[in-house]
């Protein structure tokens, strides 16, 4: 059942939990119930533009971001059969399914990170997340996302800092490559 929990309500709760809080594990423990509530809200349904960039395979709609790029709230719309390369976020993150399933493949970095542009990854697991389910990740987690359905899907993403300002990386596990990862966003 949807609710009238607004973006302003969610941002107030986000600031109460994460504002000035350096304890990532505390944030990842306390914030998910608020994110689940906002993901199910009528307010998010009204705000979500459900637009995806065919070039990157998904659309990133920034709903809220502090002036220093912290506490970013985004709605991501995923084209059918598309997704992301393996990547990290460089910040903590909470992802909640809104519409349709999102498949995540998780990796572990097995090299020491000392060679620029080089990264060796080992695939750990793959899991599908349905609407209302939460994925809470500390900054070091590496994963790839895919929409394996034949319809556009949507997920709510909350980050400690806007992902385009964290210096994060994308990875090619087949070629042992690491590169900067910046995504195109829209309003």
Account of the protein in words:
The protein has 187 residues and is an alpha+beta fold. It has one domain: Jelly Rolls (Sandwich), CATH 2.60.120.10. It has helices at residues 7-18, 24-30, 32-39, 42-47, and strands at 58-64, 70-78, 86-87, 93-99, 102-109, 121-129, 134-137, 142-146, 153-161, 169-172, 177-180, 185-186. The strands form 3 sheets. It has a 6-stranded mixed β-sheet, with helices on one face. Strands 3-10-11 form a 3-stranded antiparallel β-sheet, with no helix packed on it. A 3-stranded antiparallel β-sheet has the order 6-5-8, with no helix packed on it. The two termini are 27 Å apart. The mean pLDDT is 96.
Write the CATH fold name.
Jelly Rolls
- Helix/strand/pairing category: alpha+beta
* Spatial gap, N to C terminus: 27 Å
What's the number of structural domains? 1
As a whole number of angstroms, the C-alpha radius of gyration is 16 Å
Q: What is the string of helix and strand elements? A: HHHHEEEEEEEEEEEE
Give the strand order of the largest sheet, numbering strands 1, 2, ... along the chain: 7-4-9-2-1-12
Alpha plus pi helix count: 4
CATH-defined superfamily: Jelly Rolls
CATH class: Mainly Beta
Q: Hey, roughly how much beta strand do the residues contain?
A: 35-45%
Quick one: biggest sheet? 6 strands, mixed
Strands, count = 12
Question: What's the helical proportion of residues?
Answer: 10-25%
Shape: globular
**Mean pLDDT across residues:** 96
């Amino acid at each position: 059942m949807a609710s009238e929990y607004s973006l302003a309500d969610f941002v107030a709760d986000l600031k109460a939990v994460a504002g000035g809080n350096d304890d990532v594990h505390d944030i990842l423990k306390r914030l998910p119930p608020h994110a689940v509530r906002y993901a199910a809200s009528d307010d998010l349904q009204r705000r979500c533009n459900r637009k995806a960039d065919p070039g990157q395979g998904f659309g990133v709609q920034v709903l809220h971001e502090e002036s220093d790029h912290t506490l970013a709230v985004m709605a991501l719309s995923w084209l059918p059969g598309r997704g992301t390369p393996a990547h990290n976020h460089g910040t903590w993150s909470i992802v909640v399914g809104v519409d349709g399933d999102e498949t995540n493949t998780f990796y572990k970095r097995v090299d020491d990170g000392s060679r620029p542009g080089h990264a060796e990854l080992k695939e750990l697991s793959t899991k599908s997340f349905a609407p209302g389910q939460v994925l809470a990740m500390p900054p070091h987690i590496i994963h790839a996302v895919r929409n394996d359905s034949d319809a556009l899907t949507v997920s709510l993403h909350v980050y400690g800092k806007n992902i385009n300002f964290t210096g994060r990386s994308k990875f090619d596990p087949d070629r042992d490559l690491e590169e900067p990862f910046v995504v195109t966003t829209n309003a």
